[in-house]
Amino acid sequence: MNPLPSQSERSPLVIALDALSLLAFAMLAFRWMVVMPSHADARGGWLLAAALCASLLTDLASGIIHWGADTWGSEQWPIIGKTLIGPFREHHVDPKAICRHDLLETNGANALVLLPVIGFAGWLAGHSHLAATFTSMLLGVSSLLAVATNQIHKWAHRDDAPAVIRLLQRTGIILGSAAHAEHHRAPFDRYYCITHGWLNPLLTRIRFFRAMEAVITRVTGAVPRREDLGNLAAVRAGRRIAVGPRAPRERHNLRPNAGSLSPLGTRGDPRA
Ligand SMILES: [Zn+2]
Ligand SMILES: [Zn+2]
Fold this sequence. Notes:
The protein is mostly helical and 272 residues long. The protein has helices at residues 12-35, 44-71, 80-93, 103-125, 130-157, 163-170, 177-181, 200-205, 208-220, 232-241, 248-251. It starts with 11 loop residues before the first helix and ends in a 21-residue tail after the last helix. The protein binds zinc ion (2 copies).
C-alpha cells in the first residue's frame, strides 16, 4: 500500500523480486481458487459473510497502515523509512507520481508480503471443516484485495482509468477519485482507507485515528505528524521538481530561513 520509489531508482534485483513475487502470488491464488469450491457447497451464507468481513478488514488494515506511515516515525529509519514511510509522505506532495509506476513496482511488494497468507488460505481450503473453509475464504479474499490495494489507489489518481474500473469506482465497489480526494487535502489526516474506502466516513465521524493518536501520545510521548510535509518530503520533492539550475526558493526570490512560507506552502526546513 505504498507508492514506492520511481522505476529509475530501482535495481534489477528489486524488479526481478517483484516479478517473482507476483508470479508466485498468482500461482498460489489460482490454487486457492481451484481448491476452495470443493468444500463450499451449502455454505454460501458463511462464505458471503467471510468475504464481507475480508473486505471490511482489508479496508481497515489499509487505513491503519496508511495512517501509521503518514503519522509516525521517520523517513530516516532503516528499511521502512525508505520503503514505506517516505513514499507515503511524498505521495502527498506529488500525488500523480504513483501513476508513473508500472505493474511490478505498484504491486510487487504487496505480493511478496502476502505470499504466506494466500499460501495458508490454499492449505486451509483443502480441509472440509466449516471453520477452515470460513477462514480460508476470509484470508483468500483479504489477500486478493490487499494485493490489489496499491493498484486501486493508483487508479483513483489516474484520469484515464479503464471504463470497467471507472464503473467500479462510481458504484463504490473500489476506492474512487472523489472519495480519495478527501485525503489529499491538507493536513492529510483523514480518509486513510484506500481499498474500498467504505470505512472512511465512519472512522472520520467517530474520530478513530484521533483517538488512536491520543492513546499513543499518552503512552509514548510521540507527537503525531512531527516529521510531515513541512520538512523532509516537501524539501526533497521541491528539489526534484525544480526547473533549471536554481531552487524554488531562489526562483521566487524568498530569503532563506526567513520564516515565510515556501512555494509549496510549507515552512523552510532548517536542514535544507
Ligand atoms: Zn496519506
Ligand atoms: Zn492518494
